[in-house]
């Protein structure tokens, strides 16, 4: 099974941006996802508006480490006039085009009183995304995408190819205590991207787990995705280390850069071996 495989920056959040990219590349990954900001990383605007110097710096750093950007993250604006929320999403699509990214990760919404506004916004934004070759992909994240049924209902409610799913099996366990394999059977045709996340402990458990070490049945999951012709970016979001220490010296029980990098190597070897068998 040949899919773009990478890491989000989240496990390296306590370290430098260059250290993050070096660790991801040294582990064997060749794609990068924007989720978790290193303290020295040039910031990108939440509304997607261009900051040429910052964007050039980020892209140059990725190129230097041989990493291709794969996923950008959306921030939805609902407590504002609809035209402002739509302008923000259009700006994020434009930013994705500049980064040559095909997927914008959407994380849903948690306030039921805003669900109708959320779906109105996604229905308005999806055509613009699709016209530019971009998919807005919502992930299981509590709220309106707590369960697999919620995720399927969200995609069907928007009903446009510019709005699809980012499958996150660990989050289905964490937020809903739901078997991610059974959930996948219902919405596999709509999956455009994947957050590779393991989990232990069921609902409310821990996602500080490297892929293959927890309760997620990744072999079955990838076989199902392969059967549906899945070829989207698949980006590791969490590892069994990382994001737990403040910048500066590591204290007792806190993760070092070496520990996080070692977990990244383990994750890459596990996933590459698994995908090679499918």
Break the fold down into its secondary structure elements and pairings.
Elements: E1 5-8, H1 17-27, E2 31-33, H2 52-64, E3 68-73, H3 82-98, E4 103-106, H4 115-131, E5 135-138, H5 148-158, E6 163-167, H6 169-176, H7 180-187, E7 191-196, H8 218-227, E8 234-236, H9 257-276
Parallel strand pairs: 1-2, 1-8, 2-3, 3-4, 4-5, 5-6, 6-7, 7-8
Task: Note down, in words, how this protein is organized.
- This protein has a single domain (about 5-275), classed as Divalent-metal-dependent TIM barrel enzymes (TIM Barrel, Alpha-Beta Barrel).
- Helix content is about 40%, strand content about 15%.
- It has helices spanning about 15-25, 50-65, 80-100, 115-130, 150-160, 170-175, 180-185, 220-225, 255-275; strands at about 5-10, 30-35, 70-75, 105, 135-140, 165, 190-195, 235.
- It has nine helices and eight strands.
- Helix 3 links the parallel strand 3 (about 70-75) and strand 4.
- With about 280 residues, the chain is of the alpha/beta class.
- The protein is globular.
Integer average pLDDT = 94
Largest pleated sheet: 8 strands, parallel, barrel
Strand order across the largest sheet: 1-2-3-4-5-6-7-8
According to CATH, the fold-level topology is TIM Barrel
Proportion of residues in extended strands: 5-15%
Order of helices and strands: EHEHEHEHEHEHHEHEH
Poorly predicted tracts of residues = 244-252
Helical content band? 40-55%
CATH superfamily: Divalent-metal-dependent TIM barrel enzymes
Tell me the total number of β-strands: 8
Number of helices: 9
Report the principal-axis shape: globular
